[in-house]
Amino acid sequence: MNNSTDDNIPAINKELYPALVQCFVIITFGYIAGQLSILTQSHSTGLSRYISNFALPALIFKNLVTIHFGSVSWPFLASIFIGKSIIFFLTALITSFIQRPINYANIGLYSIITSQSNDFALGYPIVEAVYQHSHPDYLRYIYLIAPISLVILNPLGFLLIETQSRLNDKRLGYGHVTGEYSSSRLRLISKIICNLLKNPMVVATILGCIFNPIFKQTLPYMLLRIITPLADSFGATALFYLGLQLVGKIRKLHSYVIFTVMILSMIKSLILPLLIRQIVFMLKPKDDTNSTLEYSNYGFLYGTFPVAPTVIFYVPEQNIFLQSVASTCLVVSTLLAAPIMLISAKMIALKTIDNKTSASYENTLCQASFDVSIISLLCTIIVFIGFILRRRWKKNSLIHRYTLILLILQLMLALWNIPSQYMKIHTIAWQNILHGIGSVFLALATRTWSASIAFILMTRVCYGVQKTRQLFWLYHLFGWSLPIISIILVSVKSVQKQTSLVIEKFGKIQVILSIIVLLISILLSIYCLVRLARRTYRLKHDENHRRSSHSDTTLTNESRPLIDTDDNSSRQNDELNKAATFSSSIITWYIDIFVDTKWSHSKYLVCLSILIWSFFDHSHTGIYYELQFVDAVLLYGQGFITFLVFALDVDVLLPIARSLGTGLSYVGYRGLQEFLNANKQTKNRRHETMDDDTLTNFEQNIKPNFLDSINEPDSFRMQPF
């Protein structure tokens, strides 16, 4: 078995790299053609219609007619269908819980994005490169999997998108009267079904299944001569069109769009492959263990395929936000797919790994963890210096104090992992045990404190500062108790294993305790972030209502003097400018903490998948080590992620730059200090030239609401969702 595996790796490498290069070079040609305006938007539309009406239907029909359905593994297809359906409805459920007000168009499009893959243009060449020698029968599953999204799941998304369009029309006065509402829903459903049945790809799927037994899995010669050129033209044309679609998709993106795209990409690229793999193991398409493992690896590879470019056409033309999300997600997912598919395809070739190969991969994993820890340590030190110099953790917000605890834990984790490269030199057992216990404790503590910060942020927004301070003991209890209890149980009950993998160092008891801690952290984080999103929506709704009522009040106070002759007016303007800057800074920090907490979920999910794998399956395949590598990068690279979230904020970098400029001025270089001073003067002039309307709006609307939110006695009142 090992020899066949080793022989298969060069064959895969020989086919895989040319396939990837071929796909992305053609995509690049399409992008260049669109960027240089060689092909216009009308040309792109014509190309799209040719692909969807002729090339792809011909490809689907040709392959469905020639498939032998008797040899198809229907449990494997059921696994793909169940996995896609779970992701579809899970995305819809999470979106409906978090987003307020509920937008059915967003729910429908997000669900389609996370469940529909680029099966034919980009997925088929990769599957062909990996399995054409070992399992050529796997290629036909692409044509059986595609209708799952096309015929079953996508119509549900279309229904939600069209429902939101009808609601918008009704809100604007273009909708139906109440008596016609039920008939309108029936017309909507019938319209979607009719459009679905008129879709050329659906027609080709139905005709392929009908003519399969009629033609006895063989196309007539004349029909084959007609359909084959159309089918063969699909690959290059679709990839070229995909490159055209990438032109101009990322321009002036809002941070919320980027955040949404990252969450959707995480679900599509991480959760879907892991979910499909686990479902395949549960359904067991074959009684043979090796065959089940092959199908599970194939399902994992299929889940890594990027988003299909057709999602752009599902967005209503008037919905600019959804157009930005769909186009940006297409770009990000396609660019991320190349390394993910490459690594997955290469690791799939390692069906079985002997002890020597396993030790080699573990050493490589330790070296990668060491390199990531060095980068994370430097990034964490930069953010830590910014925290100390700005002193915002000390005087402005108690949330930053707890964020500083998480930052210190991340710094200690990176610092603690660096000596792991040299621990194997020592022969003293207690040093290895102490290092392993410390690594497990810091890994669990960073995850529990991420959940604690989500709970602190929810308490601060929903119940106010006073309540947040009263519950300080609860944050420390959760943040420290779970890791400490886990370490005590691990030390007493476990037996140390001879492995360099931290996740398996103390055996099954460590795996069980880590699963429990991660599940608790995930559930707590999700609950807190959902409450936080709902409370934020309620605050925005109340703010809009307050502003509308205030505008009505100002109409009755026109007799007041327009100019305040009080001597304190200039001083008041200075205070308003300072308060406005302070308010903006606080809001920016809250957003940073919110994004950092949400990003922790990807680390939770990857680690949880590895732990479940270790608990139920002791075999270490290539996919297992791939997940181990991703988990190590996310765990020991937390400092780098924190740097991206916080340190790119000028609020952290500015004090560091000022200190650096002051130090350089002592050695004769004043360029940095002059630049910072000029920037500061420009900022001050901008505040000094603030017009009266801006100051009045800040005084009447922004300042009172901000002071109410940070006022401790008023915020003691518990506020509902």
UniProtKB/TrEMBL annotation:
Note the topology in the membrane: Multi-pass membrane protein
Give its localization. Membrane
In terms of InterPro entries, this protein maps to: Mem_transp_PIN-like, mTOR-Rac_regulators
Does the keyword Membrane belong to this entry? Answer: yes
**Any Pfam family the entry gives:** Mem_trans
Region (Disordered) residue spans: 547-572
Q: Which UniProt keywords apply?
A: Membrane, Transmembrane, Transmembrane helix
Name the source's superkingdom.
Eukaryota
Q: Name one GO biological process term.
A: transmembrane transport
Transmembrane intervals: 16-38, 50-70, 76-95, 107-126, 138-161, 196-215, 221-244, 256-276, 296-315, 327-348, 368-389, 401-418, 438-459, 471-491, 511-530, 633-654
**Cellular component per GO, a single term:** membrane
Q: Does the record carry Phosphoprotein as a key word?
A: no
Q: Where is the signal peptide?
A: none
Q: What is its main location?
A: membrane
Descriptive protein name: Integral membrane protein GPR155
Organism per entry: Didymodactylos carnosus
